[in-house]
Amino acid sequence: MTKTCLALGSLVVSLASAGCAGQPAAPFDTLKTSNVTAFRLQNYEPPATAATTPTAPGAIPGVPVEIQQWIQQGAQGLQALIPPGLIPGLPAVGATPAPTTTVPRFHEFRILGQTQVMDPDLKEKLGKLFGDEDNFDNANLRCPGGTIYPEMGLSFTAGPGAPANDMLISFSCSQAVSRSFSWPHQSTGLKPDTTKKLTEIVQKLWPQGA
Q1: Residues 110/100, Cβ–Cβ less than 8 Å
Q2: How many domains does the chain have?
Q3: Is residue 2 part of a domain?
Q4: Distance between CA atoms of 28 and 184, rounded to whole angstroms?
Q5: Domain for residue 54, yes or no?
Q6: Distance CA 174, CA 170 (A)
Q7: What are residue 166's DSSP bridge partners?
Q8: pLDDT digits over 158-196, tens only?
Q9: Tens of pLDDT, residues 129-154
Q10: Do 120 and 204 form a contact (C-beta atoms < 8 A)?
Q11: Does residue 163 form part of some domain?
Q12: Phi, psi (5° rounding) for residue 136?
């Protein structure tokens, strides 16, 4: 009788653990039902002296090498996240940003555009993507010394008065970082497959030409 009870108890614990294992890590477990805002960000603002600084042939004056490499690789299908006017001949998506003194910002980075994420399916995909530790490692980090050049920001909250969960996503650095909550994973680097899945979501948030 005792062995049977122990066996049943172990089964219950195992089933409960399996159920929890399938949930995104906090706070991403709340993202599906949260109010979510996605931001297009200017990942870098060259200093005024950049125009007079010598650059290598074909390089964009004042733009960090990590961003230039990302752009030269085709920006992984994310032209909607490239700052307007950065690349000659590339159609700018969205309005030209306002002067530096008046432009709205998200954690110090100028906002080029923003959208409310209303689609429950997209919110659920974002929650599962960022809430799964298996989607991250540090093998592909491209920006040294804690530097990050985010092209995207994400802010989600459970409702009025609830604290906002803010994060920055950099495709050029292959990294995602928290700005207002404890990052739940050991790594912050985006795996190639994670980048691919996130790219598909971004293309739905900002369709090309929208």
Answers
A1: yes
A2: 1
A3: no
A4: 9
A5: no
A6: 6
A7: 155
A8: 888 899 999 999 988 999 999 999 999 999 999 999 999
A9: 999 999 999 998 888 878 898 999 99
A10: no
A11: yes
A12: -130, 140
